[in-house]
Design the sequence.
């Protein structure tokens, strides 16, 4: 391998800062993911990385300067670059057009070569695909969310209640402009939903784990529980165990588009709470009216 | 496919909230399974690329979407070029392909001389 100082273009007394700066400057130019298919850039990047690997490690740099090791052996192993994936079929996941050839893209690139039809035919604009990530509650309750497009335009996207993951909303006429008097294409907006800390969704129903105190579990009573539409009082029956599931009818995804409102399933979770001497004393001195083995139903011999 | 936590664990210099933000910005589009994100190999490699762009190449997050968009367009174009090349090699007769190759080589030579 070449002299690593020459590769990075720094003096032999360069500081670590100089080396880092030189490396970054060269890496910007030759990074293989930014130069797909350019074998020269790739080879340069390997050299630069190897030189940086040697010189950015003060110990190795010292050994090299004293002539104890040579510049060889610093080649980095095969790098699993983004390019390797992006250049193949897997890279379609990040296609702008969403994959496939549309007439307009075909025309942009090769139309004049391969197509014979007149250039003045009115043509509908291309549909454009975008992704909009929204919060769990916006998707459940419905909301209007602003989407800024790469070209700076903004679209107010109306999410209907009960919007589901991967649903595609079509905004008519908000795609690419038509040509020669043709109508504009549509904007197709694929919805992604960020997970919620407490709620999970199961179609029209929503699930929630609700912590309750030991007292609430034993005596029962009304406790406040969050729902997608805001907090409501929930009656906890006496002697509720962890895992007891209570159903709040109609408190799931609101009714929409002819579908009935879903339910909220609240799974209780008993929290004993911080240490409490009185509770400890009570439990120690307490003899249950009937002895119960909560594990009786478990098959412990297997 | 691997989970968000696994991606964070295997990518040095990556914080969980960085990745969550990048997903919201749609710089990375993992799949979703219930409440969980699942990353394909291409997504993991893209996360590593974004980390490199940010940490080694010092592209700050304000400029990253422009860079990513241009990168995506380059790979998109490469895929499309390859499709055309494949279509030509399947459909065009051999003498036409040779004539095209010669012509392109001459054009390239001419461009260099300019």
Sequence:
């Amino acid at each position: 391998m070449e002299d690593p100082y020459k590769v990075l273009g720094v003096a032999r007394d360069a500081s670590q800062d100089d080396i880092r700066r030189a490396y970054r400057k060269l890496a910007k130019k030759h990074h293989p993911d930014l130069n797909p298919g350019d074998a020269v850039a790739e080879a340069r990047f390997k050299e630069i990385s190897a030189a940086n690997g040697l010189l950015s490690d003060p110990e190795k740099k010292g050994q090299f300067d004293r002539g104890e090791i040579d510049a060889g052996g610093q080649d980095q192993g095969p790098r699993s670059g983004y390019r390797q994936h992006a250049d193949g079929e897997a890279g379609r996941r990040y296609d702008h057009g969403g994959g496939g050839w549309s007439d307009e893209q075909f025309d942009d690139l090769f139309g004049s070569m391969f197509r014979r039809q007149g250039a003045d035919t009115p043509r509908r604009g291309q549909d454009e695909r975008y992704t909009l990530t929204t919060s769990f509650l916006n998707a459940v309750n419905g909301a209007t969310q602003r989407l800024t497009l790469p070209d700076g335009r903004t679209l107010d996207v109306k999410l209907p209640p009960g919007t589901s993951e991967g649903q595609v909303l079509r905004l008519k006429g908000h795609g690419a402009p038509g040509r020669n008097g043709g109508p504009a294409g549509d904007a197709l907006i694929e919805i992604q939903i960020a997970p919620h800390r407490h709620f999970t969704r199961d179609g029209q129903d929503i699930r929630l784990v609700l912590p309750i105190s030991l007292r609430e579990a034993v005596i029962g009573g009304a406790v406040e529980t969050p729902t997608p539409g805001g907090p409501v009082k929930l009656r906890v029956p006496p002697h509720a165990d962890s895992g007891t599931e209570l159903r709040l009818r109609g408190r799931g995804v609101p009714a929409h588009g002819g579908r009935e409102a879903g339910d909220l399933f609240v799974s209780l979770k008993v929290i004993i709470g911080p240490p409490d001497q009185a509770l400890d004393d009570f439990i120690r001195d307490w003899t249950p009216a009937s002895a119960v083995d909560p594990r009786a139903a478990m098959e412990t011999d297997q | 496919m691997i989970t968000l936590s696994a991606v964070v664990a295997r990518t040095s210099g990556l914080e969980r909230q960085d990745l969550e933000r990048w997903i919201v910005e749609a710089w990375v589009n993992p799949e979703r399974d219930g409440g969980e994100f699942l990353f394909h190999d291409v997504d993991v490699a893209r996360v590593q690329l974004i980390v490199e762009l940010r940490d080694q190449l010092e592209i700050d997050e304000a400029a990253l979407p422009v860079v990513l968009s241009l990168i995506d367009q380059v790979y998109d174009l490469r895929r499309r070029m390859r499709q055309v090349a494949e279509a030509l090699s399947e459909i065009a007769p051999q003498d036409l392909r040779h004539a095209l190759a010669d012509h392109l080589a001459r054009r390239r030579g001419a461009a260099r001389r300019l």
